[in-house]
Structures
1.
Amino acid sequence: MKFTKMHGAGNDFIIINLMDEPLPVSALPALARRLCTPKLSIGADGLMAVDYPTTQDADYRMRFYNSDGSEGEMCGNGARCIARYGYENGLAGEVQRVETISGTVIGRRRSQRMYTVRLNDPSVLKPDYPVEVDGKVYNCAYVELGVPGLPHAAVQLDELDTIDDDTLRVLGRKLRWHSAFPKGANVNFYKCIGPDHILEHTFERGVEDFTLACGTGSGSVAAALTVKGLVSGKDVRLTMPGGDLYITVAADESGVHDIFLTGPTNIVCTGEILDEDLVLTE
């Protein structure tokens, strides 16, 4: 089974092409769990499978699975990586339409390594959604991108640049499973550190830990802060452990729309999976 490994600002993915590999979709959750496990296999935040589109207006379909095998609605950094994969493997041109569970995503090649995707418009955006944990109320916004919505909590944390990792992880886990978020939530801690410049760390649902970057999380944070008037909405810089991403978002009387995520991609390796212990079951 051939694979490609890529990352976007440290958010890493394994890509399998179902157009070439005769794998049943039912095998993908088990495949994700195995391949994404460090030491036992390649290791990654998620698995993406390229498949034939089911709609007339898409070039191909992106199936996304978190490292725990759960299927995700969409992944922003994953979409940027798969847009490069699609372009370099002849699946689409410099502008392409990628089908996801949450809707069609538009990808655009900026240069060899820089790609932009238009994220799904918010189906839910609550800019002021305070959440209490252990007696402390956190300034939070809640955003769902696309339909069905990919849930994100944007949590202001002024001590984000000084808090220790273990303490932040405990808080992230409590918020990720908080009853205020019936679908669970990706928890995006943020701190405004300059004009249109945000520090962000994301505890991701499905990975159940922090990742080095989160594209849809960055889009959700920037969208919420644009509505609140705290950023301009144009080329907002999100600095995460894996690097910088840039968000441009439109917010007007019709709502929040046209969220564009731009950042780097990196092809880490290509190869063939020869895992003798791999058993593909649901």
Note: The first helix runs from residue 28 to 35.
2.
Amino acid sequence: MVTSKTVRLDPTDNVVTATAALAADTIVEDVACAAPIPSGHKVATRPIARGEAIRKYGQLIGYASCDIAAGDHVHTQNCAFAATDQTYEFGTDLRHVTPDGGDTFLGYKREDGSVGTRNYIAVVTSVNCSATAARRIADAFGPEDLAAYPNVDGVVAFVHGTGCGMADSGDGFEALQRVMWGYAKHPNHGAVLMVGLGCEMNQIDWLLEAYGLRQGPTFQTMNIQNVAGLRRTIEAGVEKVRAMLPIANKAQRTPCPASALKVALQCGGSDAWSGITANPALGQACDLLVAQGGTGVLAETPEIYGAEHLLTRRAASPEVGARLVGLIQWWEDYTARNRGSMDNNPSPGNKKGGLTTILEKSLGAAAKGGTTPLTGVYKYAEPVRAAGFTFMDSPGYDPASVTGQIAGGCNLVCFTTGRGSAFGSKPAPTIKVATNQTLFDRMTEDMDVNAGDILTGASSVEAKGREIYNLFLRVASGEMTKSEAQGLGDYEFVPWQIGAVM
């Protein structure tokens, strides 16, 4: 329930959220605020005894670390995190969507049956040692060089800081190989050049053998050591890309079904409004996409912690639900081994925006996944095969998470933010959704959609979800996003490093 001063999300909640800064003694649901309450922060609407559960969204977000009086500001000073001990149910909340096919966009149909929303030439590195070569190859092709190839969106270098000093097997190595394969085969790439050093642990030849990749006019590889040095590698790489340009330029946009879209569902710089405006609206857009046969891919496993039980209830099968629970257990062990806590997230900015614990943040973050059944759960950067609403394991760090989603086949990214984000990605363009009016007005050059008007009643979650979904189709057809217009995406390729650096 939205009033002029607060939002109550569930009748069982013992806190409400302030829609604007409230002065001390402001009356909220017949209770006087005991102190000033910042916008987006929580107010207790009844006494909460020490050790009692604090509830928002009708769910646990923490425990009172001291007695809390009605009207008190509820935040880090009196709300404590405790690890969850969930009882998981599988498939008890299945809301099947009514199929609604027929929507189309103008995309690039590839020979393997996949569909791209952009048409880049990628220069992908196997190791940090070849990063300079890759960047200089890509930098050789500026706007004047590409003017003769209007169907090519650009030449992009995907470089990273790993690939050697790592084990040649195990989670870390396998994740990096999946990322490389995913970018090599991504439908938003019209051609790919892979550049290595030659002696690294992450051998290009191993990747080719493991994934059955074959070299040809639009897929080439090279190693600096074999070519005989950096300068010659750059020169040879430039010539290889120059030969790829006219081939990639032959690609034409043609009508494609909305079912061909895979959208990465992301959030970053979240605030208290994320789970009230932008994330539910993105969830509505995801439902609309799923109705068309498309795919939404939620990620950031640490940021569903405390809400995963809601997702297991939506699991299409017990096996899918069990895979999600397995990821949660892995992360609990991973943080414990590294002497951390799942509550290390939220960040200081999240807390300033009103989010107190990871449980509260996760309940809002999970809303990005809409309401339809969970059809698949995937490893980091694993190809997403199932249509519908899916989940991919990843850290909460946005660049690493999106890198995995794109490697998994996402050809669009939708990113909600409340504190403000300057994120963008290539080859899949990023649509950014502001959770509040103040942010949208302050960062208008960065935000594509304003979900803040949901709070004022000028829009609704349903209407905003339709607006976001329609933007999916336009951006997939070539409309430029705000992040693309500012050239973002060249430095946001960050494969997740798992395991020891040796």
Note: The radius of gyration is 24 Å.
3.
Amino acid sequence: MAATSSDSLTAPSRATGRHRSLWMDVWLAFRNHTGALAGAGVFIAIALAVAVGPLIHTIDPHYLDILAKNQGPSLKHPMGTDNLGRDTLAQVLAGGRISLAVGFTAMMIALVLGTLVGVLAGFFRGLDGLLMRLTDMFLALPLLPLLLVVIMLFRESLRAAFGPETGIFLLVVFIIGITSWMQTARIVRGDVLALREREFVTAARSIGTRRRRIITRHILPNVLSPIMVSATLGIANAIIIESALSFLGLGFPPDFPTWGRLLFDGANFISVTPARVLWPGLAISLTVLSVNYIGDGLRDALDPRLRGA
């Protein structure tokens, strides 16, 4: 009996003393955020649809069927057809691949640039003023006119060098990436300024640790939370900018559909087939909204004050 009672007393202590990792706490907090879970579910569903959908719905998005032009939804064409008889569902799925690829690639460029500038400005006092004035200069530039001018200047040369599809993809991704890093740089700089004065950084300096190792070992792991939140918001921002450029007719060519290009092509036929602008517009809205909800959930989950840590 004594042994049984002692085991029963020590079992709860073992259970309560079990160590939980930081990422487990973050996941538990993220799981309790209803909007973030719903956003993650919608975004995963969209990503799976554009990745696996063409294997199920095997109609070529470029196939022309003039006899089936401007049709409404049917079993063969669940989202109808356009004025040339192309299947709208196949075009939306193909355009989703391009739009998501643009979003992720441009986000990575902006994230690398913003993190690099933010860490250098926050850690090295001599670079702070120069890099922040550079950031202010980029923030002061009118974004949309700048994008239009750069695309008009370099579009033909990149098309000739890499082809019409690859050249425009590289140009759009590069332009969006180098004009979207400023907010990340400011956020990372603020966190690095606070971390630079913490005790563990001072201790690392006192034992002669190199600056590069201090940044990679102590600074970067502690600024992951704002970087991850900026990453989610950067995807949404890149998709919106690409859609705006394509809607203005300055993005990808007509035979290389994106969600923004489908909106541009369907705008002239909105009175005949309204579904042509409904489906790509709905895809853009759901993707951007779901990514924003994921960003909100990550921000709350990664903040120890909000998750009760």
Note: The chain has 13 helices and no strands.
4.
Amino acid sequence: MIYLSKENLRDRIYACWIGKNIGGTLGTPYEGTQELLDISGFASKAGEPLPNDDLDLQLVWLRAVNDLGPDAINSKVLGEYWMSFINPNWNEYGVCKSNMRQGILPPMSGEYNNKLWRDSNGAWIRTEVWACLYPAMPEKAIRLAFEDASVDHGFGEGTYAAIFVAAVESAAFVVKDFNQLLDIGLSKIPDDCRVARAIKLVRKAYADGIDWKTCREMIVKDSEDLGWFQAPANVAYVVLGLLYGECDFKKSMILAVNCGDDTDCTGATLGSILGIKDGMNGIPKDWMAYIGEGIKSICLTNGHGFYPEDCTVLTDCILNLLPVTLRQNQSQILLNLARPHRADYRGVCLADKEDLTELNVDEFYGNEFAMSLANRKPYSYIIEGVIADVMVEFDDKPQITAGGTISGVITVTNKPNFPEQKQYSLRYLCPEGWTVESPLTAYSYLNPRDQKYRYNKVPFTIHAGEHVNAVNNIILEVTSPGRPTQILVPIQVMG
């Protein structure tokens, strides 16, 4: 068990949001700039921050956690909050909302017809809420970051970027060495993804003594095929600011923004990381005084209740939830439930005095989650049931023509709190003239502590009839004899 001081946590969470506001305000006037910049400070009016979607969207996620509790949060829940509380329809935000209006469930809402934006910046810029709700618990933070990011980025580089940043931010509550933080973040994403490649490029350039402007040009060259406003290059600019600025707040922020591109995002995220790492002692007092602590919204739907209007209230809202998010972890330890990741065994507790003597940073590393994503088909989603979860994976893009076929796999996975062996019956309810070719029985096995014995994969092939709509709905009914709860799984196929 490690004990985090309430006072220190308040300081670091508050500094996270102040740093976020400072960086967003510093960078917003230059958003989209493709040339190298030469700024030295703010270009906005003194006395207030500029509005920024990087922070706005996280107020909605915080509302969802407060409304439903952290255990209820998944990509489908966040998708519904997108539809009710978030205005913009630009870029990946517009793609995911358009897909969800058609009935395409997250995370497929971030994958389907989203080639242009699935690798972009909309998700890694909104990870602080998960890190602050799970300080020093990166495994928890990255799982929620994935549920969040996948709504509008599917399994693209934008999602890997969010996982990387969430891990760094969560670990930064107790790890101060920035190279260790980068190592922890990289351990959570595939070694061969483009985000990892861009980060490693920066680290090597810095280690080799290459100047920051040359390093920036190397990043631009490396991402030429992806274009501007994409996650690999912009996360690399954050890392450039961190390394070449040597964690000096002003120097680091100016370097990151001077790289250009999505400057409000790079500045805001770097400000958050430094705020968490160093607390308010690391925030320049003159810069904080320049913007104050207010929050200016740009993306939230008006008329739907209260949102924090300044960083103090936002910090208090998160602190009020910490006894819930941290207590969950402690209860899992006390009940000795099987957990697939060592980091979940370690307790994090609120206390009046900080005690990190039992902290083992080695537990922060690990690529199990990244591997589970790499082994999953991109056109997929999970429906959570009471006794089991059902994952639908399409072998290809879920589109079909009259008389055509599309195949995939259904995976039924036992919930660990219902460990006994079970048989499941599968029944498909199809549009008229459509059929599904699939085994009608799935099994789950007795030992829930070993992943390979917890699930059963069942292939399926959908045969379309003569009539195909723009959106075609099949319902898979999953039942277990002797159990009262059925799981209804919607399967959408586009015409």
Note: The CA atoms of residues 131 and 170 lie 4 Å apart.
